[in-house]
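Morning. Coffee machine broken again, so started the prediction first thing and wrote up yesterday's gels while waiting. Chain of 258 residues, entered below exactly as on the submission form.
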Amino acid sequence: MLVLVSPAKTLDFEHPPITATFTQPTLLSHSETLIKICRQLTPVDIASLMKVSDKIAGLNAARFEQWQPDFTPINAKQAMFAFRGDVYTGFDADSLSESQIHSAQQHMRILSGLYGLLKPLDLIQPYRLEMGTKLANSAGNNLYAFWGEIITNEVNKALAEQGDDIIVNLASNEYFKSVKVKQLEGQLITPIFKDCKNGKYKIISFYAKKARGLMARYIVNNQPKTLEQLTEFDLEGYYYSPEQSKLDSPVFLRDEQH
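Came back before lunch.
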């Protein structure tokens, strides 16, 4: 299975990664094009465009200026260990074994507004450029237009390389919109996670994000080959609900947490 996840706004470039192994992003020439556009923005422009505080806008203006494409372990960090946030809390990359890191590199890809599509061990430099950003460029007025079919083509390549035709979408809607579903050369599965609150099962964003990370970790650890094997996911109290599930959207429930 090929797992797709979103990146995270929160980054950690302070702590050293647990492995020295790294790869280079495939789409860096496209990233350079975006950086050149972003360098023309003032901090005020960035604050307005990204709807962030003046402090964060200033930080990102500095990041755009400092960014340069010769990535080394000194000036960059592997994506899987650099991203922090709810999904990555669930995924817990820092506890992976060497064989699990290899499995993640094979079976997982991270969608990115700046980098397009990342392998877990691809080096990245600090940035913030969300996929939904309305950044005008030569292809249109947003990043979906900029990336066009590029990300989808890379997903199909990764799908072919990892050996089967099932794509598990664990990304947010904002990021998955960068993938052209009709052009995917595989079966698309989008799991849904619901937690019980006040007697009703519903999607609670914080828990759902962490659950996506848990499922990504489950796939990396267990390398399921079929949807039936995927429905055996049971980490942190989640269980498969055949009654609520559809073939392409299995539902996992968790009872109220005490």
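The first helix runs from residue 28 to 38. Going to sketch it on the whiteboard this afternoon.
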